[in-house]
Amino acid sequence: MSVSDIQLKLINKAKEYLQKKTSENVNVHNSARCYFMAWDKTPGYAILKLWQEGYKTIFKSYKIFFKDIISISSFYNYYLINKSESNKRYNKIIVTWGLKNCFQPDGSYQDKYFKINSKDTNEALWFLIYDEADLPEKIDDNILIFTKSKNTSKFNLMYLFKGILKKIILSKFSIKKFFHKTSSHTEFSDIVWNKLKDFVKKDIDTIIMPYEGQPFQNKIFYKIKKINSKIKTIGYVHTFPCSLPTHYIARDGSPEKLIVSGDDQHYCFEKYLNWTSKELKILPSTRYSKVADSMSGYIYLPMNLPSADIIIKSLQNLLTSDKKKAVANLIARNHPSTKDSKKHIEIIKKINNLLSSHKNSSKGESHKNKFSIFIGSTSAPIEALERDVEVIHICDDPVFQCYSSTLWPSIKVKKIDEYTYEYKLLKKGSLIKLGDSSKIFQEGYLN
């Protein structure tokens, strides 16, 4: 079977699974076993792997399940900052990720996803999910910060024990329901909702968030509709299209309106992921603008590195191809989140040594076209294509990482070898419509 055939098979298996679990009254909105994210080792990822490769991955899958349950012990001591504003009336809630460097000196928050300042939305309550150690010095009145105390130990086994006991009771001793309720993702979703629910007043007419299909996001939408079915629930797909978008399959808890930023996303979500055309809305991206730094001339490393042997072997193959001149002159670029990772630093050294050994043979020659190589699980190749960069993608797990023209018809895919693929964009703007106005959010996203 081709990569695209296997991807479609996994998508269909996931849809059937969600339908079955919904009929069994399982919490599909916030169960980690229904969160089919294809690039991180979550329970949903483990299930996808079992479907793809069979029982040879059973031990790896159980290891993922076990680690996920144990990690519940770290989900304690969360609290809200600035909650004195609970009595003030707002008509909108914006749930987003909080970063210290996005706070302005006046206490306002400049959101990087919606490109809007909290001061420009006085009628909205901002709920920031904040994971940094240092807190901002000043916080506006319409901002809530949801964070965890940093003055506690990382794990609390008593919290884990009490949590498991509670889940056993809530599951009415059903093993299947217990495992759907017992997960770090489900635990986090319960905590977030318990902190947010007191602010969901009768005046609220809209809730919007950058949407990734995460269990806590679905839990918020699911619960808000139970409180008041007239509240508009809006999700915004802020990332570039991903290779295997199983985590975006519509289910109980999905937003009633989903904003996407390209024709290909609309096509994929409607044809394969159970969304209706009425539920989807195409608008230019607020996160990504037309003006950006050049993405040409690099070998981009991902946060989760594939096998070093696969990376070096694939680069060696490219250095013996007609891409030799372009590849030899590239610069290895680390992921911003892994600057201190020994594993990343070591592979960068190996890549540089390999490239250096081929630079002499191409000395004095130039490659006029824009060109970059991307490695592993990443949506960055899509951004590069939309910014007129030639793209090669090295995938150690092609089914979970490689793009296919079946799901994304604006991409022409050429297989170079077992792990290496070349992409070309057939129609610019089809994958994502890059934004150029800060007014997009107010004029389009909230309507």
Give a topology summary.
Layout: H1 3-23, H2 43-53, H3 58-70, E1 78-81, E2 92-98, E3 110-111, E4 116-117, E5 124-130, E6 143-148, H4 157-170, H5 175-181, H6 184-196, E7 206-210, H7 215-227, E8 232-236, E9 257-260, H8 263-272, E10 280-282, E11 298-300, H9 308-318, H10 324-328, E12 331-333, H11 342-359, E13 371-375, H12 380-386, E14 390-394, H13 398-401, E15 411-417, E16 420-425, H14 440-445
Parallel strand pairs: 2-5, 2-7, 5-6, 7-8, 8-9, 9-10, 11-12, 11-13, 13-14
Antiparallel strand pairs: 1-6, 3-4, 14-16, 15-16
The strand line-up of the biggest sheet is 1-6-5-2-7-8-9-10
Number of strands: 16
Cα gyration radius (Å): 23 Å
Mean pLDDT: 91
Main beta sheet: 8 strands, mixed
User: What oligomeric assembly is this protein in?
Assistant: single chain
- CATH class annotation of the largest domain: Alpha Beta
In terms of DSSP E residues, the strand content is: 15-25%
Class from secondary-structure proportions: alpha/beta
List the domain count as a whole number.
2
Shape designation: globular
Q: Number of helical segments? A: 14
Structure description:
By secondary structure, the protein is of the alpha/beta class. The model has no long low-confidence stretch (mean pLDDT 91). Helix 6 (184-196) packs across helix 7 and helix 9 packs parallel to helix 11. It folds into 2 domains: 1-288 and 432-447, Rossmann fold, CATH 3.40.50; 298-425. It contains 14 helices and 16 strands. It has an 8-stranded mixed β-sheet with strand order 1-6-5-2-7-8-9-10, with helices on one face. The protein has a 6-stranded mixed β-sheet with strand order 12-11-13-14-16-15, with helices on both faces. Strands 3-4 form a two-stranded antiparallel sheet. The radius of gyration is 23 Å and the shape is globular.
